[in-house]
Amino acid sequence: MQKPKSFRPWQPDQTTLLPPSPREWLAEDHQVYFLLDLVDELDLSEILIPAQAKDPRGEKGFDPRMMTMLLLYAYCVGTVSSRKIERACYEDLAFRVLTGNQQPDHSRISDFRRRNLDALKGLFVQILRLCQKAGMVSLGHVALDGTKVKANASKHKAMSHERMLRAEKQLAQEINALMRKAEILDAQEDRRYGKSNRGSDLPDELRRRQDRLERIRQARKEMEAETAADAARQRQEEADQARAEADAANESDAPAVEQAELNKRAEAAAAKAKAAQEKAIEAAKEAGVELPDLEPLAAEAMPRRGLARKANGTPTQKTQRNFTDPDSHLMKSDGHYIQGYNCQLAVDRDHQVIVALGVSNQAPDVEHLEPMVQRIAATAGALPAVMTADAGYWSESNAELCAAQGIDAYIATGRLPHGQPLPPKRGPMPKNADAKARMARKLRSKAGSRNYSQRKAIVEPVNGQIKEARGLRRFLLRGLEKVEAEWHLIAATHNLLKLFRYRRSQQQGLLLASG
Questions:
Q1: pLDDT tens, position by position, 162-197
Q2: Is residue 374 a contact partner of residue 299, using CB atoms and an 8 Å limit?
Q3: Contacts 24+ apart (CB under 8 A), 92-101
Q4: Angle subtended by helix axes 480-514 and 31-38, to nearest 10
Q5: 40-49, 52-61, 198-207, 378-387: range with lowest mean pLDDT
Q6: Sequence-ordered list of residues with C-beta below 8 angstroms from that of 60, at least 6 positions apart, any chain
Q7: What average pLDDT does the segment 200-206 reach?
Q8: What are the pLDDT digits (tens) for 32-64?
Q9: Which candidate, 307, 343, 289, 299, places its Cα nearest to that of 150?
């Protein structure tokens, strides 16, 4: 008689299941061990020094280095929720090895991320420097692209300025009606129950309407403050431009009449800018928000989408503002609209390392090229030799900017067929060809066709690796500054994964060569 098949022993109640050393729990080349070794290569002083300066009394806190590595690993594997990270510290073996079998609760994880958001954002440059030191970045060819990422807000939680005003009026009428009804019921109940007792639920109903009225009124005031600030910035830019033109005329041999006219325009523009600034400051005080920065944006600053407004700085009737994340905006992505942000990436060709990034709430890409070029120089330390970008970035000024910076740019001037090289354009360039025609001819050249065909394979897989492989399709944080910091953390962990795989391949190559 044949013996029954036997199986491996299964003893879930056994006391010891794991090896005595955590180093034996995971494969030798696991990413967790790479992160544990990486601690000594990163400068975490911005996180450590404030933590060490705290009152030494009370319960001991978790090591800030461990918390930093915990967040980095969590973002690497697409786990960003503090509650999910806490659960993983109990249930996921890799998390337990990384934390040394410690389990910080979700509130501590969330507080640590919030307090150290700027320092965590700065890790992007440090990790990029490690990639450069490893020889993974040459800046020979950088591709630029933008992707829309959902905000932590619903697109249905928004209201137009016209609807806010209408809702305020309607709620005020309802509150007045409820107040009158409450007075009548109070008098009836006083006669029935006595003055010390009350049997009506109307105060709760009244409170709900009053709370809603306050939220809508506050959102309207903040919207009006934002549009006033946008108008003030525009007026200041116009004043600066008018003053520059007047100064240039004054220093030249321009006729006295022309100089006088330009000076008069500059003074009028300055007066309008001052009035707009005063209105913006008054609107901010009325809304109870921080006074806005009314200076024009710096060259490396990402463009900000201003709310639709009238010339005097007041919102239009259809101007909308989201209640959950006011900085986010409706944007078209893959044929439908999302409440989100426009996230920019500049990716090096060699190993798909991100060399610069930014976030804005403006959907079109064209205004992002100049600040992204500035950011590449700041974070990578140099400008790329070749840069490619799709048609969303085309403008004559962008082409001139790249040429002035010594960048050999290939920017599509229109929609190009995917996966098919453009047929070369033969014959001499027309003498009257404009910048767009020259760029279109450049793209049809042998070098242009070869370089531009690589754009899709350089930058678009990075978006796929972030959104699909790691599942980072929605931001956890709210507000433009926090979202940009989180996007830096996402990009830093992308580069971290590239560095980990590159070093592992190098080690495997050395082992094969020596064995």
A1: 777 777 777 777 777 777 777 777 676 666 655 555
A2: yes
A3: 93/25, 93/26, 94/26, 94/30, 94/31, 94/32, 95/70, 96/22, 97/22, 97/25, 97/26, 97/32, 98/32, 98/35, 98/36, 98/66, 98/69, 98/70, 98/73, 99/66, 99/70, 100/22, 100/66, 101/22
A4: 110
A5: 198-207
A6: none
A7: 61
A8: 999 999 998 999 999 988 888 887 777 788 889
A9: 343
Q: Two tokens at 427? A: 């014959």
Give the model's pLDDT for residue 71: 96
The three state secondary structure string of 454-507 is HHHHHHHHHHHHHHHHCCCCECCCCCHHHHHHHHHHHHHHHHHHHHHHHHHHHH
Q: How many CB atoms lie within 10 A of CB 218?
A: 14
The more confident residue out of 327 and 216 is: 327
Contact 77, 470 (CB under 8 A): yes
Phi, psi (degrees; rounded to nearest 5) at 171? -65, -35
pLDDT at position 195 is 58
Mean pLDDT to the nearest integer, 116-122: 94
For range 452-471, the mean pLDDT: 93
* Residue among 209, 158, 213 at smallest CA distance from 324: 158
* CA distance readout (Å), 18 to 12, 13, 25, 26: 12, 13, 7, 11
pLDDT band at 235 (very low <50, low <70, confident <90, very high): confident
- Per-residue pLDDT of 428-445, as tens digits, reads 666 777 888 889 888 888
| Dist CA 478 CA 325 (whole Å) | 6
In the block, residue with structure tokens 């073996």: 93
The percent of the chain in helix, strand and coil, each rounded to the nearest 5, is 55, 10, 35
Biggest distance spanned by C-alpha atoms of the chain? 118
Write out 56-122 in H/E/C secondary structure: CCCCCCCCHHHHHHHHHHHHHCCCCCHHHHHHHHHHCHHHHHHHCCCCCCHHHHHHHHHHCHHHHHH
Three-state DSSP class for residue 339? strand
- Neighbouring C-beta atoms of residue 162, cutoff 10 Å: 14
Residue 123 to residue 491: CA distance in whole angstroms: 10
**Token duo for residue 99:** 């934390």
Going by C-alpha positions, the residue among 410, 334, 340, 330 that lies closest to residue 369 is: 410
Q: What secondary structure letter does DSSP report for 315?
A: B
Write down the number of H helices and E strands in the chain: 15, 8
pTM: 0.81
pLDDT > 70: percent of the chain: 87
